[in-house]
Amino acid sequence: MEGLDTKFAALADPTRRAILARLSLGEATVNELASPFEMSQPAISQHLKVLEEAGLIICRVEGTKRPRRLAKEGIEAMDQWLGMLHTALEKNYDRLDSVLAGTNTQKKGKKR
Fold first, then answer.
1. What terms describe the molecular function in GO for this protein (predicted)?
2. I want to staple 55 with a disulfide (CB 3.0 to 4.6 A). Which of 21, 24, 74, 80 is the partner?
3. Given this model, what pLDDT does residue 112 score?
4. d(CA 97, CA 43)
5. Which residues is 28 bridged to in the sheet?
6. pLDDT in tens, 67-86
7. What is the pLDDT of residue 63?
8. SS3 of 112, please?
9. pLDDT below 50 — which residues of the chain?
10. 15 exposed, middle or buried (CB, 10 Å; 0-12, 13-18, 19+)?
11. Which is nearest to 70 in space by CA: 42, 89, 51?
12. CB contact set of 7 (below 8 Å; sequence gap of 6+)
């Protein structure tokens, strides 16, 4: 899974996570993305650059505007990696459930 370090490093910043959350609602321009924050447009543009380099957002040209949107492939790569961890965690819980079920069966057998 290529580029995961860059993707997760980009997510370490709360402003970038907020930008991604906003983009989950749909495409937005830099001005639209900057409006909820108390920071300059160049500062927001720098965050957008980090997100673009991480492959998490895509920019398209529309005249003088450069609307951004989520990059499906970048988000899916992180989701796939997290899904692998989730599957491993479920298997661990299943094994724990089996051990606990065996323990309960042994306790019931001793009471009789």
1. DNA-binding transcription factor activity
2. 74
3. 59
4. 50
5. 68
6. 999 999 999 999 999 999 99
7. 93
8. coil
9. none
10. middle
11. 51
12. 54, 55, 56, 74, 77, 78
Token duo for residue 57: 């957002």
Q: What Cα–Cα distance (Å) separates residue 30 from each residue in 22, 33, 34, 61?
A: 12, 5, 6, 12
Pair of tokens at residue 111: 């009471």
Helix, strand, coil percentages (3-state) for the chain, rounded to 5, are: 65, 10, 25
pLDDT at 102: 87
Q: Cα–Cα distance between 22 and 78 in angstroms, integer? A: 18
Both tokens assigned to 70: 């989520």
Please tell me the distance from the alpha carbon of residue 78 to that of residue 84, in angstroms, as a whole number.
Answer: 10
User: In terms of Cα–Cα distance, which of 4, 21, 10 is closest to 84?
Assistant: 4
At 21, the amino acid letter reads A
Q: Which amino acid is at 27?
A: E
**23 and 16 in contact (C-beta within 8 Å)?**
no
Tokens standing for 18? 């907020």
